[in-house]
Design brief:
The chain contains 6 helices and 5 strands. It has about 160 residues and is of the alpha/beta class. The protein has one domain: HUPs (Rossmann fold). The structure holds 4'-phosphopantetheine. 4'-phosphopantetheine binds next to strand 1 and helix 4.
Length: about 160
């Protein structure tokens, strides 16, 4: 039976760490729906449309991927999509408490949807969209941490030309 996972997140913007999780997730699931949360309460650098565009461009080498956005409860969205699982990446220990809380709450809300964690690849363990955005705002060279399309978009957002410092 075909298995589908939702990989939810802010993706502001998508990083190579996210791509690594998606790539490895595809060895476990037949299809992954990468879902950007519409969260007007959270300040973001990129609009949801920009984030969807960056995800679509960065994931075009993979098949069996759908890029989408959602609002409201993740478990409701997952049930609508008939997904079997929620996929999350786990980085350093600092992620654990929040991820545990999220997974347990989701389980309480819908026991049919399992949360599957993949350990983030060692290369990406201390990277995050937030720290990458901060570095990019100072024109630091983050070209090996994000897909090339995202790198260009970060440059454009901050009005920098192509050459990093
Ligand atoms: O990339 P992030 O910001 O860590 O992703 C967090 C996300 C989107 C997975 C989480 O905030 C979420 O699922 N939000 C939707 C609302 C929801 O279902 N919350 C959990 C139960 S109250």
């Amino acid at each position: 039976m075909s298995k589908t996972a939702i990989y939810p997140g802010s993706f502001d913007p998508v990083t190579n760490g996210h791509i690594d999780i998606i790539q490895r997730g595809l060895s476990l699931f037949d299809k992954i729906i990468v879902a950007v949360l519409h969260n007007p309460g959270k300040k973001s650098l990129f609009s949801v449309e920009e984030r969807l565009d960056m995800l679509t461009e960065s994931l075009n080498q993979f098949s069996n991927i759908e890029v989408d956005s959602f609002a409201g409860l993740l478990v409701d969205y997952a049930a609508d999509k008939k997904a079997d699982a929620v996929l999350r990446g786990m980085r350093a220990v600092s992620d654990f408490e929040y991820e545990f809380q999220l997974a347990l709450m989701n389980r309480r809300l819908n026991r049919n949807i399992q949360t599957v964690f993949l350990m983030t690849g060692l290369r990406w363990i201390f990277t995050s969209s937030s720290i990458i955005k901060e570095a990019a705002s100072f024109n630091a060279d983050i070209s090996d941490m994000v897909p090339s399309y995202v790198y260009q978009k970060l440059k454009e957002k901050h009005g920098f030309s192509d050459n990093p410092k």
